[in-house]
Amino acid sequence: MIFEGLAEKLQDTFDKLKGKGKLSEKDVKSALREVKLALLEADVNFKVVKNFISKVEERAVGKEVLDSLTPGQQVIKIVNEELTDLMGGAQSKVEYASDPPTVIMLTGLQGAGKTTTAGKLAKKFIKDGKDPLLVAADVYRPAAIKQLQVLGERLDQPVFSMGDKQDPVDITKAAISRAESNGNDVVILDTAGRLHIDEELMDELSQIKAAVVPDEILLVVDSMTGQDAVNVADKFDDTLGIDGVVLTKLDGDARGGAALSISSVTGKPIKFAGVGEKLEDLEPFHPDRMASRILG
Ligand code: GDP
């Protein structure tokens, strides 16, 4: 489960604080040192941790907390609020375009979970009463097209493909025309990934972006890759510009460093979390609920 180690350490630290009754400035500072170490052990970005601790300290080492009847609780409340803020504050949703179809472009490195997420998102949109068109624009990994077709069959939803010999920009343009003529109100573009970020990939994605002008560019990243996921997100945002992140494989990530750093580093929200391999394993990302998971 995500935040396993972090939750345990923070709860220990705060149990000690709560047990003390009145707190001195030294008590709070020493607790925050433990919080800092726990965050670093959870693989949270160093700068993010530094900023976080100084913000919490500024609020927690004041008269209001130290003179309070329940100072331990007050510190926990501040940490809870700041953790929520760190993960983006309010929940951030995918907005439907006023002029359909809403075009969602999924990007990310190979193996991050793009194709799986395309299927999961389609399922969510169907539940919302929409009629999504899945688009196979990953022409470099032939299995990706088949994989998307299988997902489409399971969902009983159309999949647009032109095989693996056409240019992805042409495929995506043709797909939008198909959606318009078929009356699909959402289009989900499954674009190609690579093992690493390279110029060719970024050029192709930029061309698709310019050709179809997506309503949402979502970056799919694997939570288990920790700070690598954060660096990938930062790079994609700088080069392509993203609207949000889908953080996959949260079910296998005990640390949670990416979840705690990505939004703060890129300034872009995490919109969804992948929590398993099945089509229903996609959850809206709620920063406040995530913070509560850490603090118990
Ligand atoms: P793509 O190359 O980015 O299209 O990645 P895929 O969609 O093919 O996913 C790569 C692997 O990750 C597959 O085995 C998926 O089943 C798995 N996967 C994707 N999302 C999740 C998730 O949220 N949790 C878990 N446990 N596995 C996932």
UniProtKB/TrEMBL annotation:
This is Signal recognition particle protein. Keywords: Coiled coil, Cytoplasm, GTP-binding, Hydrolase, Nucleotide-binding, Ribonucleoprotein, RNA-binding, Signal recognition particle. Involved in targeting and insertion of nascent membrane proteins into the cytoplasmic membrane. Binds to the hydrophobic signal sequence of the ribosome-nascent chain (RNC) as it emerges from the ribosomes. The SRP-RNC complex is then targeted to the cytoplasmic membrane where it interacts with the SRP receptor FtsY. One of its GO terms (molecular function) is GTPase activity. It comes from Halanaerobacter jeridensis. Belongs to the GTP-binding SRP family. SRP54 subfamily. One of its GO terms (biological process) is SRP-dependent cotranslational protein targeting to membrane. Its EC number is 3.6.5.4. It comes from the Bacteria. It is an enzyme of class 3 (hydrolase). Composed of three domains: the N-terminal N domain, which is responsible for interactions with the ribosome, the central G domain, which binds GTP, and the C-terminal M domain, which binds the RNA and the signal sequence of the RNC. Residues 269-282 form the SRP54-type proteins GTP-binding domain. Part of the signal recognition particle protein translocation system, which is composed of SRP and FtsY. It is found in: Cytoplasm. It catalyses: GTP + H2O = GDP + phosphate + H(+). GTP binds at residues 108-115, 190-194, 248-251. One of its GO terms (cellular component) is signal recognition particle. The chain holds residues 1 to 296 of 449 of the full protein.
